[in-house]
Amino acid sequence: MRLVHISDTHLGFFAYSRSDPDWGINQREADFYRVFSQAVDKIIALKPDVVVHAGDLFDGVRPQNRAIDVALKQLIRLSESGTEIVLISGNHSTPKMRETGNIFRIFEHLDGIHPIHEPGVAEVVVGDATIHAIPHSATPPMKEVLSRVQLSKHTRHNVLVMHAGIEGSSRFRTDHINQQLIKSDDIPTEMDYVALGHYHEFAELRKGMYYSGSTERLGFGEVGQRKGIVEVDLDRGTTEFHELDVRNMYDIEPIDAQDLMAMELSAAVRSRLDESPLEGAIARLTVRNVRPDVARSLDTASLRRMASSALHFDLKIERVASGLLREVGDSTIGSLEREYGLFVDGLNLPDDRKKRLLELGGSYLTEGSE
After folding, report:
1. Alpha-carbon span 97 to 62, nearest angstrom
2. Which of 167, 308, 310, 360 has fewest C-beta within 10 Å?
3. What is the pLDDT of residue 156?
4. Are 158 and 130 in contact (CB under 8 A)?
5. Phi-psi bin for 317: left (phi > 0), alpha (psi -120 to 50), beta?
6. What range defines the domain where residue 117 resides?
7. Which residues contact 196 (CB under 8 A, 6 or more apart)?
8. Which residues make beta-bridge pairs with 286?
9. How many domains does the chain fold into?
């Protein structure tokens, strides 16, 4: 019996003020939709018995209509292929208040799709496997919910799917919203496979326990990470990672500007950028130890234009001031846009007004950075 493990698709994610030429929407938002479709193409080709999605299908609790539409179309494709899908809600798609309601209810009528969002353990039997599905939960805490898991004796295989960080593991940061931590020892070792979501890089924590990782890169902390899905043969006890084609992201080798004047620094930046394949990529260059007099002489707008072929270029300048490093330039504009986008997304407004606010706000932020 075979399954596919996928997670952290974050549909609706967006960043930077660039539009996709075909869809006319935020380019990064379109990237996440395209790679999800690519993942579904791969799953249909693999013909597994079941797919488990380990959380964060959407990037937010209240996804836009476009993200919902993309999710529905792709899940219906899987359903029509005869594949069973077990889908749990992660911390990004779980409301803090139950009164808010959960978007996963829209999938409940679809054949072969099992959306799990209510706190507790749900058991879904597919063929000769029992899927023990634990959606994100703050009340009761997930550790308490996990203690209720009972292995089934009626099927040959038992699979656990949950969305959580593993306490004591270096595999994830602890600054995610609304996250839950679980000890590895709390997870039954008798499970044939443990499908984890939350950490964005493909990783094996112990035999049969994996993070599949996200399907696209959400930030520079994920530079160099492969993105994809995991194929699992439960009968043989084997796993295979299938890599997806995602947008290039680079953290360019930093420049130490301690002994450089402004013209020399500009030349060094140009040299670094000429060596980098920037076309359509997301890139960051850090310049360290810039003296105050040199920083005042820099034409940062001109430096950024050197990377105009990139989708987004983050120039991070660290200036020496009173013996300390201080950042100048546009190093935070990406996060500002993201925070602004999340704010607008949470407003109780029609989609057309949200879109207009995003367009106006994004242009103002870009203008301010330049």
Report:
1. 13
2. 308
3. 96
4. yes
5. beta
6. 2-243
7. 7, 54, 161, 162, 163, 164, 166, 205, 209, 210, 211, 212
8. 316
9. 3
